[in-house]
Structure formats: structure tokens, C-alpha cells
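Service request form, structural biology core

Requester: graduate student, group of Dr. S.
Request type: structure prediction, single chain
Budget code: on file
Notes: please return the result as C-alpha cells.

Sequence provided:
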Amino acid sequence: MLPLLLLLPAAVALAYQAVALLASLVFLERSRIRRSKPLPAFTPAVSILKPVRGLDEALDAAIRSHLTEDYPNYEFLIGVQDAGDPAIPVIRAALAAHPNAQARLVMCTTKAPNAKVGTLIDLAREARHEVLIVNDADIKVPADYIRRVTAPLSNPKNGVVTCLYRSSASTHAGEFESICIATDFIPSTLVAPLVGIDEFGLGSTLCFRREDLEAIGGFAAIQDYIADDYQLAKRIHALGRSCVMSEVIVDTHMADPGWREVWRHQLRWARTIRVSRPGGYAGLPVTHAGVWAVANLAVGNFGAATALWLARSTMGAVSGFLVLRHWPSLLAAPLLPLCDIWAFAVWLAGYFSRTAWWRGRRITLSGDGRIQETK
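Core staff response, request fulfilled:
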């Protein structure tokens, strides 16, 4: 009986891998079409807001990439909360190397449960332009970044533009997490719009109009939430606007974590998803093809196990390498189903508590994703 029962989740997991593969191929084709066209003539004045806290080895490259954009009218505002932040000398050196850039460091003072959003409240107050771009501190961008991420806003129905990201690391644990992101999280992000879920936004890039931000109550409306990127996109979507995935892929760097830090990071993501989208979280095991491959192998369903293993490896290679150009994903493709066992363990652990480690603090989350306590 057990071998027959395990064929059902195997079939569902196999179907998900097929959908994720299709979503990746659709993204590739749409990106090819967009890039085959001339750069957009739509060039509204833009303010880029980048909250920074702490220093990692990728920060300098990330800052400098924003200072050399091929765009006629933009300003770049970098916000920090602590006057002793070790990132400040690096930021000042980058700004000094590009004296003609409309860029400056802003000392921010607004305190919020989500400190990043507190910084954004101050940066938005300083920003001069009506189109805003927010991205995380370690995000490095290509020279046509602003042109391409603002282009969808030429359609008034579009409200938020976001980007996929490619991560790298200098440790084995960090590289493992980068592979998991490229071959598990990224394809799930691409599946969402393919199946009609269009209230999505990633911290790698959020591009939107100031008028829409003000219509949802500004950044202050999301200052209590840990998933500020998701909350912002969700609320602008509720105004009747669409969320759009840009063809641009940005780069980020894992801050050389060890295995404990990777576990805590993944667990925080899991618990954030659980309190933000409980229904979607409950269904995540259908994406863990490797788990069902091992289970079917254990009961003698060799055909199902083989099909799942091949499907997971193929989908991960397409998503990780063809979509993101992330070489480690291609090299690790035959072993990608093993990542699902890790992901399943993280998923299970996500149910046992509402606490998480975040920015060196232990936080407690409410049932709707608000930060309740910090230690």
C-alpha cells in the first residue's frame, strides 16, 4: 500500500518541476524579446534609496555600480543609522571617486521595529523624484539597470517592478545557500506569476511611484513587518496595480556565513513566509522533489524516483544556469535533489516557533508577520 500512496506526492512533485521548468523558459524568452528591442525612451527622474548597515566585502562594488548608471536624471541616496558604522568610510570613498554623480550619504534617525524601513522613511523624505527604486545594501547592478526596471512603469497599470538576483559566496556553506536560492527559490518566484499570483516583490529591487507609496501610507505603514518587500508589493497591488518581473538580473554576495548562519537565515525566511502566506507555506513540500525521490526509492518505486531525480536536476540546471548564469548550479545539478532534503528540514522547523535570528537579534513574529519582540 505504501508504494502506491507515495506515487501521488511523487506525481504532484513531478508536475511542479514541469511547471517550474516552463516558468523558467517563459522568463528566458520574454527576456530575450525585451532585450532585442532598443532601450526604453521612457526615462522619468528617479531616486534610488539604498539602506546600509554594516560592512561586507561586496559593498564597495555594489555602491560603485549605482554611480555609473547610463541614465539621464537620477539621484542615489545611501542611508545609515549609526555614525560609527564601518560602511561609512567605504561609502565616502566611492562617492569621492565619482564627484559628478548625484549621490550622497544620509544619516538617518527614524527608529522602527524593522530598522531598514526606518532608514527608508528618512530616505524617502530626502528623495526629490517621483519614481523610487529601493534595493538591498549588497545589490550590484548593470549599467542599464535604471532604464530597464523603470520601463514597465510607462504603463500606468503597473505599480511595482522587481528583479531576480544571482548570489555568490566565499564559503562552502554560503555557496550551498547560493545554489539553493538559484535552483529552488528563484524558480518558485517565476512560477508565481505564471499561475496568476502577482503580488510579489523582492528586496533585490522594488521600483514604484511615490504616489502609490503615499497611497498605502508610506513606508511607515510597513515598519512593523519583517517582510517589508512583500508587504510593499502586496499593498501597492491592492491599489489595482500589477507587479512585474524585470528581465534585469542583479548580483548579491552572501556575507561569508557558516553553516549555523545559513540555517538561521533559511529558517528566518521560512518563518517569514509562514506568517506572510500560510497557505502557500503549507504547500511547499510539493516542491521538494528530492524528498519524494528518496521516499519512492526506499519503497522500490525506482521509476518514480528516477523521474523525480532527473526532473529536479534538469529544472535546477535551467533555472540556475540558463536563467541566472550561475555556474555552480550547473556543476551541482546531479546533486540538487539533496538540497530538497535540507529545504524540507527547514520547512518542518519553520512550524515549531515564531522566533528568528535577524541582524544579530532574536525576534518574535506575530501571526501576520509583525515584529513583536527583539532581544
